[in-house]
C-alpha cells in the first residue's frame, strides 16, 4: 500500500509537524534499552515547572503483534496491543488503562489504494464510536472525522478535510469543531538536499471571529544538525536547534519569546533522547 490517501490524521500533518513538533518549554529526558530477547524499554521523565512526571514503557514484538505496556508516576497502567497486517491493509489496535475500567477501546484501520478508514469503539455499555474516512489518491483526498456518543445520542465531533499533494507542495483545508473552526495549511519543500521547507497555518474561529496565523521554516545545517523557527500574528516567536549526536540519539533545545512583551523574558525547553 502506501500510495493511497492515507488516514484522516495525515491531512495537514506535514505543516503541523513543521510548525509545532519538538517545540516545548519543559525539560524532558528519555533513555531506550534493547534486551537480547527483543524487548524495548523506554524510561522517560519530564519536569513541568515544579512538577516532575515519569513513565516506563515496555514494548514487545512477536511477528505482527506489538504489545506496549506503560506505567506512569501515578501507577496508571496503559496497555496497547497492535496487530498489523492481520489481512492486507488491515491493522487492529486494542488499548485500555488500569484502574479505569471505562478506558478500553478497540480500533480498526484499513488502508487501500483509494481509501483510508479508521473506526474505534469504546468497550463500555454505552460507548463513544468514532469513524474517520478518506477517499481519493495520493494527490487529492477528501475525508471526514466524526464521533457519536451512544449514551446521549449526541454527535460529539464532526470534522471534514481536503488535501492536495504534489512533488514539493502539500496544501490542506479543514473544517473543525462542528463547523466553527476553519483551518488552512501549506507546506512547501524548498530544497530536499538540506530538508529546507516553509509552512503556514491560518485558523479562523467563526464564533469569536478571531484569526491565528502561524508561519515557520526548517533547515538542516549539516547531516546531524537542524534548526526550525516560527512566529504567529500575536508576536510569539519560537526557535529550536536539534542535534543527533549519535544515531537516533537527539538533543533538542528550544525557546519562545513574546515580541510584544520582551520584558517577560523567554521560555526555554530541553529534551534529550538516548538510544543505543
From TrEMBL:
Annotated InterPro entries? Porin_dom_sf, Porin_Euk, Porin_Euk/Tom40
One Pfam family here = Porin_3
Q: Where in the cell is it found?
A: Membrane
Q: Which CDD domains match?
A: Porin3_VDAC (cd07306)
- Keyword line: Ion transport, Membrane, Porin, Transmembrane, Transmembrane beta strand, Transport
Family according to the record: Belongs to the eukaryotic mitochondrial porin (TC 1.B.8.1) family.
Q: What is this protein called?
A: Voltage-dependent anion-selective channel protein
User: What is the organism field in this record?
Assistant: Anisodus acutangulus
Amino acid at each position: 500500500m502506501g500510495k493511497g490517501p492515507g488516514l484522516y490524521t495525515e491531512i495537514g500533518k506535514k505543516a503541523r509537524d513543521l510548525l509545532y513538533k519538538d517545540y516545548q518549554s519543559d525539560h524532558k529526558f528519555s533513555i531506550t534499552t534493547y534486551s537480547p530477547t527483543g524487548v524495548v524499554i523506554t524510561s522517560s521523565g519530564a519536569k513541568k515547572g515544579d512538577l516532575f512526571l515519569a513513565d516506563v514503557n515496555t514494548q514487545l514484538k512477536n511477528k505482527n503483534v506489538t504489545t506496549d505496556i506503560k506505567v506512569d508516576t501515578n501507577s496508571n497502567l496503559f496497555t496497547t496491543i497492535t496487530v498489523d497486517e492481520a489481512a492486507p491493509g488491515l491493522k487492529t489496535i486494542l488499548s485500555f488503562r488500569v484502574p479505569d475500567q471505562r478506558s478500553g477501546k478497540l480500533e480498526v484501520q484499513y488502508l487501500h489504494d483509494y481509501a483510508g478508514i479508521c473506526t474505534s469503539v469504546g468497550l463500555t455499555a454505552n460507548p463513544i464510536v468514532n469513524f474517520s474516512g478518506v477517499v481519493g489518491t495520493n494527490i487529492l483526498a477528501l475525508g471526514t472525522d466524526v464521533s457519536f456518543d451512544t449514551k446521549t445520542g449526541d454527535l460529539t465531533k464532526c470534522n471534514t478535510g481536503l488535501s492536495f499533494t504534489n512533488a514539493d507542495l502539500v496544501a490542506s483545508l479543514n473544517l473543525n469543531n462542528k463547523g466553527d473552526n476553519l483551518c488552512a495549511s501549506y507546506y512547501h519543500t524548498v530544497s530536499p538536499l538540506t530538508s529546507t521547507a516553509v509552512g503556514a497555518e491560518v485558523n479562523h474561529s467563526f464564533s469569536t471571529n478571531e484569526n491565528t496565523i502561524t508561519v515557520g521554516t526548517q533547515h538542516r545545517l549539516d547531516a546531524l544538525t537542524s534548526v526550525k523557527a516560527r512566529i504567529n500574528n500575536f508576536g510569539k516567536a519560537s526557535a529550536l536547534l536539534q542535534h543527533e549526536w549519535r544515531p537516533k540519539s537527539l538533543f533538542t533545545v528550544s525557546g519562545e519569546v513574546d515580541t510584544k512583551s520582551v520584558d517577560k523574558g523567554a521560555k526555554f525547553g530541553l529534551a534529550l533522547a538516548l538510544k543505543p
